[in-house]
Amino acid sequence: MSGETLLGQQPSLEGAAPGLYGVVRCDFFFRNDTARACHVLIGFPAELALDPSSERGDPSIHEFRAYVDGEALTVAQEPASPRSREAHSQVSSWYTFTVSFAPGQERRVTNTYRVTNTQNSVGEVFVRYILTTGSYWKGEIGQATVTLHLGKVGPDQLTRLYPNNWRFARDGRTLVWERRNFEPAHDLLVAFSLRAADDAFLATLEPSERDRILSRRSQFHRLVQDAPGPEESLYDEAVAAGDPILAAYLRSLLPDAAIPRRAPAITGLKVQPGSDGSTVQVEVDWADPDADLVAWRVRLSPAGTAKPDAAEQASEEQGLWDPRFSGRLLALLPVQTDRLYAIRVNLEDAQGHSSSRTIWYDSNTGQATDTDPRARYARWLPVGAAVVVLGLLAVSRARRRRHQNR
Question: Are 57 and 16 in contact (CB under 8 A)?
């Protein structure tokens, strides 16, 4: 399977802010790699179940159409089944349609629809695209390309890119996300601020905050007009200033090899007993040169035993929407007394780069070490065995000498 998706911002209704309405076209290429004809029921998310305390708006997809090789298909809308809710809790209903395949046939499935982007109480607008439903297709996705046209929304208005590995066009108003040969484990999100472009609102801010927003607007404007392209030093300055979106824009204008992609790193790991003695708290400091961390996981298991007693805590996608170059995560996991545990921490970025570290925790003493205590005893075991053997030999020789002297 491969696919290409175009997300465009529809001209807003009269009196509405730019970027609230979007039009989408998706092209998917599916191949039947069996020797038999088949009829496949395909589902596409129709409505998302959002948290009303953090977002408002219409999470539904409207005017959904499906085509196969250019011919229109009959589409139905169905509520999410318990099984599909378990796999995709944010999808409350699906559009479904059936596509027929001859043996070995490849077909192009096209979907078009209209959306109203949701927003929060501080004027952030969220543009989403769900990738994770593609993880249920056979094998990896060969290639995926998602292109977002921001329309009148400027790059200085962007507040979040998830993950932070989108590429910008020079004008900053077109974003492209690409990946090859992968199984999707996260969705895509772009957020922008309506208030950053509202001069009347900016006039109500404190001078320092207003100047910061206007300075960023001017900086992007200069970069867009800078025909020769930016210097690498500007990218380094954006990283030093902690501005991952500006850094992503500058990286996009530089040659591909200028800024190599690097894996996230675990820069600190602290383990200590929980307050009630039945838990352990794991504190992890991390750094990510590309600010595109998409997942973390802390797993605890009794050393030398199988998985059934294991416990783990993993990141929630929403907690990583804000791109950052560094951070700290906390995990609280249950433990039993008088046991030795292996605690493994894993980080993963949007390129599939990962880093991990294991630490051993003794729930009896509350102490943690970087090395397995059992290995220390194992190193001394051969020495101890040799001492015992030599001792037995010495005793045996002494007995023989006494016997001979008699």
Answer: no
φ, ψ for residue 256, nearest 5 deg? -55, -40
d(CA 155, CA 373): 53
Rg from Cα positions in the chain: 29
Range of the domain at 295: 265-370
Instruction: Note the pTM of the prediction, 2 decimals.
Output: 0.83
**What are 273's strand-pairing partners?**
280
Q: Can you say how many angstroms the Cα of residue 307 is from the centroid of all Cα atoms in its chain?
A: 25
CA 287, CA 266: separation in Å to the nearest integer? 7
Structural domain includes residue 86: yes
| End-to-end CA gap in the chain | 90
Domain boundary pick from 187, 219, 253: 253
How far apart CA 323 and CA 346 sit, in angstroms, is 18
Whole-angstrom Cα distance, residue 161 to residue 332? 28
Task: State the DSSP code for 77.
Answer: E
Residues 90 and 192 in one domain: yes
Question: Which residues in 139-148 are b (16+ Cβ under 10 Å) and which e?
Answer: ebbeebebbb
Q: Mark the ranges of the chain whose per-residue pLDDT is less than 70.
A: 1-3, 9-18, 227-228, 304-309, 376-406
Q: Please say which residue of 230, 253, 276 terminates a domain.
A: 253
Report phi then psi at 263, rounded to 5: -75, 155
Token output for 206: 């404190």
